[in-house]
Amino acid sequence: MDMDTFDSMLRAVPAGGITSACGFSAAGVHAGFRKNPERLDMALVVADEPVACAGTFTTNRFCAAPVMVSREHLGAGAGYGTARAVVVNSGNANAATGEQGLATACETCDIASQLIGCDAGEVLVASTGVIGQQLDLAPFETGIPAALEALSTHGGADAARAIMTTDTHPKEYAVTYESQMLEYVGASFTVGGMCKGSGMIMPNMATMIAVITTDAPVAPKVLHGLLSGVVKRTFNKVTVDSDTSTNDTCIMLASGKAAPDAPAIEPGTDAYAELERAVYVVCEALARGIAADGEGATKLVTVNVTGAASDEEADTAARTVANSPLVKTAIAGHDCNWGRVAAALGRSGATFDQGNVSIDIMGLPVCRDGLTVPFDEDEALRRFEAPEIIISADLGAGEGAATIWTCDLTHDYVTINGDYRT
């Protein structure tokens, strides 16, 4: 399938998000996890009936209680199954909370399942916020009924706002497309999602917290394979501060409501390629949104590395540049200091000869064959006014390539994190 042709058929859903796909409703409420009564702090996403579900979770060994519970509900190592609802709270991570934290996560599932009318194993939970503090169950006891009362197909925006921590704005996106495959003729499939993430971001599975939905028909195991592949190319390519959270969770639900009588989409088919691309576009938009909204950030930074010995080495090199405090502060100061990029590439561990390296910043050639290229500093300053800063490096060592998204590093990052608990 020609993806360029397919991309031209993808349409962004205006104000789209988690409830854009058929078969889902959502709500965001103030349950009491946060002191400010004006701030939404609990989201609920509910499927009309049990649906295919897949998840990817943090590899951090200090993983949070909700991660353990949701992973267990999706078959432990399998990562897929069926689900009816997802409950997400902000303000408290329920991480490093021991048996009591696990009990709270389990009881949350029990409360939701009894009110929704499903099995507790069909409820997934996620939490975000301060680590090491016990999560109070009481807000769930009042918040879940309130969320069910507010549940609607237009509740996605409130849900996206309720999962925010230090995010400056909610992150949601959705696309729709009409399948070109004969078995799905006339069917329009939608993929939508929401996520949160601003600090403690260098996922090693997914993002901080993301929920993705689709109304395409997909079996749980196939959905997991699709999600895992997309996550590796999107959320796992984001870094704000090189810290991997204890709570990283990415959950995808598939209702099949857009083609209820059609066969499930299978790997290796053009229909699978269509859906995979749509999921990629949504997750890429959300991933870029996380990088752009990094704590204290003023710029989205895209680091492209080509010409590496392998894709893995390209990733290593690009990630080292993206995580370099010297590179990130230079961008914050609008300083076209390519030497910091070269130094990061050189210490990354990627294999290359410095005499073959070329570097561009914002489209300006600044290094060729490992040597400086004169450039107009005033023009560089002008280009630094753009909202996205692009750094490109060709290592001249092979065909490997990778892209990493990050942000600049400002004084505000220190302020936000210095004051996080107080």
Secondary structure elements and pairings:
Layout: H1 3-7, E1 11-12, E2 24-29, E3 42-57, H2 65-73, E4 80-92, H3 98-116, E5 123-130, H4 138-150, H5 156-162, E6 171-178, E7 188-196, E8 209-214, H6 220-233, E9 249-254, H7 270-292, E10 300-308, H8 311-323, H9 325-332, H10 338-347, E11 358-361, E12 364-368, E13 371-372, H11 377-383, E14 388-394, E15 400-407, H12 411-418
Parallel strand pairs: 4-5, 8-9, 10-14
Antiparallel strand pairs: 1-6, 2-3, 3-4, 3-9, 6-7, 7-8, 10-15, 11-12, 11-14, 12-13
Helix pairs in contact: 2-3, 3-4, 6-7, 8-10
Morphology call? globular
* Helical run tally: 12
Structural class: alpha+beta
Give the N-to-C terminal Cα separation: 53 Å
The secondary-structure element order is HEEEHEHEHHEEEHEHEHHHEEEHEEH
CATH C-level name of the largest domain: Alpha Beta
In words, what does this structure look like?
This protein has 422 residues and is an alpha+beta fold. It folds into two domains: 3-292, 4-Layer Sandwich (L-amino peptidase D-ALA esterase/amidase), CATH 3.60.70.12; 300-418, Ubiquitin-like (UB roll). It is built from twelve helices and 15 strands. Strands 1, 2, 3, 4, 5, 6, 7, 8 and 9 form a nine-stranded mixed beta sheet that branches. It has a six-stranded mixed beta sheet with strand order 13-12-11-14-10-15. Helix 3 packs parallel to helix 4 (138-150) and helix 8 (311-323) packs across helix 10 (338-347). It is globular, with a radius of gyration of 22 Å. The termini are far apart. The mean pLDDT is 92.
